[in-house]
Amino acid sequence: MNAHTYDLATLSHDSLACTGGTARWRFIWAHGWGQNRKAFAPLAQSFQSLGDHVLLDFPGFGNSPQPRETWTTADYADLCARFLEANPTSAETVWIGHSFGGRVGLQLAARHPKTLARMCLIASAGLPRQRSAIEKARVTGKVYTYKALKKLAPLIGMDTGKLRDRFGSTDYKAAGAMRDILIKTVKEDQTKSAATIRCPVQLIYGERDTETPPEIGRRLAQLIPGAKLHILDGQDHYSVLGEGRHQVAKRLRDFLGEA
Predict the structure, then answer these.
(1) pLDDT at residue 119, rounded to an integer
(2) Which of 4, 19, 145, 257 is the most buried (most CB within 10 A)?
(3) Could you give the number of structural domains in the chain?
(4) b/e for 61-80, b at 16 or more Cβ within 10 A?
(5) Helix, strand, coil shares, percent, the chain, to 5
(6) Please, which residues bridge with residue 163 across strands?
(7) To 10 degrees, what angle do helices 100-111 and 73-86 make?
C-alpha cells in the first residue's frame, strides 16, 4: 500500500461546519506524532464561526488504519492532497499543523502548492536539530552504547525491550508498529522543500520547547519566503496547544486578517 492506494474512506476525521453560513476558509487541522484529531478540537472550536473545519487522524493514529508500508512524510502529504482534491470547496484552504503535522504540511505545500492558500505551523518539525559539540557527543555516545548492547543482548540474556525503554525517546518507546515510520520521518531534512514554498506561512513556537526548539522555527523562517515567526514566552511543545492556545488563536486570527 502507498498513498495512492490508501482507501480515503478509511481516513478518519471530524468535520465542523461554519456557523455563519458561507465559509471563506476551510481549516485542516493536522495533529502531532502520537496524538489524534482530538488534540486540536478546542482550538478548532474557537474558530468554528470563521469557516469549515476538518480534523484529521493521520494513517496509523486515532481511528485511521496504519499504512502497510513504511511511509515518508511525502506519502502522508500525497494522501492529504488526494483527500483535499476529493473534497473540493470554494473556500480558501488553511493547513494548521502541530509538530509531525508540520512536517506533513511542509511537504504538502511544496509538492501540491495549489491545494493550500495559507499554512500555520505550530512547533513544527522538519529540519535536523542543531546541537552543540557537547550535545552531539552525548547523543552519539548514547547511540553507540545502545547498538553495542543490542548486539550483546542475545549473548548475555538481556531483554532488548528493556534496552529500548532505557535508550529510546518517548515517541520511540510508544511507537509500536509505527516505529519504522517514525524512524524514517524523523531522519528527513526538508530544507529543500521549505525553500520552494510560496503560500503565506506563519510559524509559532514555544520558548521552552525542547522537542522542536525555536531555532528550528528561525531557520524555517529564513528558508520560506515571507514566513512570519512568533515565539511564545513560557510555552513548550505541548502547552502551546493547552494553556497557550489562546495566544496561538490570536496570532492565527491576525494571520488570516480576522482579528
Answers:
(1) 98
(2) 145
(3) 2
(4) bbebeebeeebbbbbbbbbb
(5) 45, 15, 35
(6) none
(7) 70
CATH number for the domain that contains residue 72: 3.40.50.1820
Whether the predicted pLDDT of 133 surpasses 90: no
The distance of Cα 157 from the centroid of its chain, to the nearest Å, equals 38
Asked if 96 and 12 sit in the same domain, the reply is: yes
Answer yes or no: do 203 and 80 share one domain: yes
Q: Are residues 169 and 119 in the same domain?
A: no
Distance, CA of 70 to CA of 177 (rounded, Å): 10
Can you tell me the distance from the alpha carbon of 239 to that of 243, in angstroms, rounded to the nearest whole number? 6
Residue pLDDT, tens place only, 56-88: 999 999 999 999 999 999 999 999 999 999 999
At position 183, the amino acid (one-letter code) is: I
0.70 cut: is pTM over it? yes
Tell me if 66 sits within 8 A of 93, measured CB to CB. no
